[in-house]
Amino acid sequence: WGQGFATEAARASLRYGFDELALVSVVGIAHVENRASQRVLDKLAMERVERKQFFGIECYRYAVERPAYITASASWLNTLRDR
Description:
Layout: H1 5-20, E1 25-31, H2 35-43, E2 47-54, E3 57-65, H3 66-81
């Protein structure tokens, strides 16, 4: 609730997916009405790919590929160092 927990958990999930599982890309889905979840995905450098229904609910699908993750994670590390 505005304290950054969702963003940190999502970053840890991306790190695990790319660094430990060697995934090529990661996908996130957020309900159209859920602006907070969309902001988290935006902060992770995930790109909004499409709007479609998942399980009968209108959602946005986001995706990030390994090169974009590497660039974004370097930026996150710099932000942490500056604190």
